[in-house]
Amino acid sequence: PEDLVNRLKHGKVYKENQAKRALNNFFNMDNLIALREIALRRTADRVNIISEKAKHLSSKLDYFTSEHILVCLSPSPSNPKAIRTAARMANAFKGAFTALYVETSNYEYMTSENKTRLHDNFKLAEQLGAKVTIAYDDNVAFQIAEFARLSGISKVVLGRSNTKKRIIFSKPTFVDTLTSLAPNLDIYIIPDKKSASYRELSINQRRKESFSLASTLKTIGIIALSTIIGLLFQYLGFSEANIITIYILGVLLTSLVASNKIYSISSSILSVLVFNFFFTDPRYTLQAYDPRHIVTFIVMFLSAFITSSLTIRIKEYGKQAAQTAFRTKLLLETNQMLQNASDINSIINGTANQLIKLLNKPVIFYQVENNNLTEPMFFCDNTFNQDSSIYMTKAEKTVAEWVFKNNKHAGATTNTLPGARCLYLAVRGNEGVYAVAGIALDDDIIDSFENSMIISILGECAVILEKELLSEIKKQAEIKAQREQLRANLLRAISHDLRTPLTTISGNAAVLMNSSESLSKEKINILYEDIYDDSMWLINLVENLLSVTRIEDGTINIHMEGELLEEVISEALNHINRKSVEHNIKVNIKDEFIMAKMDSQLIIQVIINIVDNAIKYTNLGSTIEISVRKNGEFVIVDIKDNGNGITDVGKSNIFEMFYTEKNASADSRRGLGLGLSLCKSIINVHGGTISVRDNEPHGSIFSFTLKAEEVNLNE
Known about the structure:
single chain; alpha/beta; Rossmann fold; 5 domains; seven-stranded mixed beta sheet; six-stranded antiparallel beta sheet; 21 helices; 18 strands; elongated
């Protein structure tokens, strides 16, 4: 900025007068500093975009414009130290923090102690702010390298035990393999001399792989069947190559049906021994004189072993693919179900049902209302037959409240309030905690796959709940705005339209008070009639206002009963404007016993409003006809007049609040435009419809429908 100011002062940018105006107006020091900051940010954003495109186009470009720390999870005792170190690095570098666990085929043979330790490491990573991800593969190093490449990981943090490398026949260490797969990745190794050796743990783990009687019998049966087929082939004159193929096929079948890879190796060895025993000279001994048979045995063993290994690998991949498919299906089903939910209760019900389908355990949900937890909602499947109250005690709710206030997991299998029967998780979003979900574990442990699924399902629930709450807030804001607009319109209309009748009443009352002795009796009666008319107009206005307010607020009470239309119309005509005598009002009911289900007081108000409008907007001596007929399940009421009619624009807006037709009438008062709007609201509450159309040759017909009620003549 200083250089630019000096250039302006020396006339190197603008002429002298123009430069002075620029320095005094826009090109001051504050604006120039702000412009420089904006330019630098835009340049940095542009460089990021270009670098990301270049990285996608070329695999050789392996650099990072922002820090993303990855910690690898495992059941190792040193893993918590690695997790904490990675969290501190992410905080120091202001970067993203991700935790990755690669589940291998050995997971099912993992000891309960290791599973518990792994579960604790998952919880620790989540508590320290990591986004936990699970991958499935036996090649752990390859999965980590690929995940790092696709996710833009800049640094990987690993734990290391005191495992010693063999001097002879040693294979590359895990770190060496990972380094070769991702040579440009920064790898941080956190040593821990106190932890046990990984190799020792692995050997002990493999020793605990128990044999299955069913798999043993299947293996023996397959070898026996292969031998019988081999003997049949020998009898038919087939070569030894065909018999060897049968044994390799038997090893392949063993790999498919056996529960442990030990059976595949055993089957390979036994197949060679049995082939040697039955099919090589000397027969029925394990000796082999021909050196070619030794080569045959070696090739046979290697073929069987490699085939069985590939089969086992494919079977494991099939399991992993099935898990991935199940995860995708469940999440898609959850998303679709929650998207179609109509309210918060439906969202919570759908989420609870998906969790029950996943875990087959009861689920408890606490909603959040007015920054407090509501009473718990218990969900379970049809097989649950225990007392549900043990999961909804005061102690359990205390744990749920702690989760709500602290936005962290607590309860069973955690280090926070572990005495609870349930594991409580916060359903969290951008605006805080929307609900608390409890899962009744009863001393069970959730594995890594189930844990990731629970987090994903609750994440979907949080997104939909947040969307629903925002929609509800928006709806409430719109209702509030509409009410404010209604209040403003009412105040504006009342202040304008009440002035005329009130002025007339007060003026006529003043004349009667001060000059009644000098007025004739006829003049006094006219003044009384004017006061009465204006008072009745005000009373009708107040009734309409009260009804509109009750309907808008939803506080109106509807008492639906079967009523005779003839009686309701007769009652309404008794309350019609006094000037109705100046018009010809007819009632035409073809059937005396037409009944409809209604609140009679509200329908009387509808008839009064429509007939009063007809009186107001038609000339003296006009005809107003009220007719009633039944049409199927509904009763149709028509109110006709032979006035000047309503314009096409008026017919489309006549039932809107505060709309009035600008027709000349005998009554000089302008209505508020509430009467017909109120009629529409009342008829809608009754489940009917209201409309207006032209009367021939002139005038209007107002029609509304009510649900018909059968007449019981025995009553």
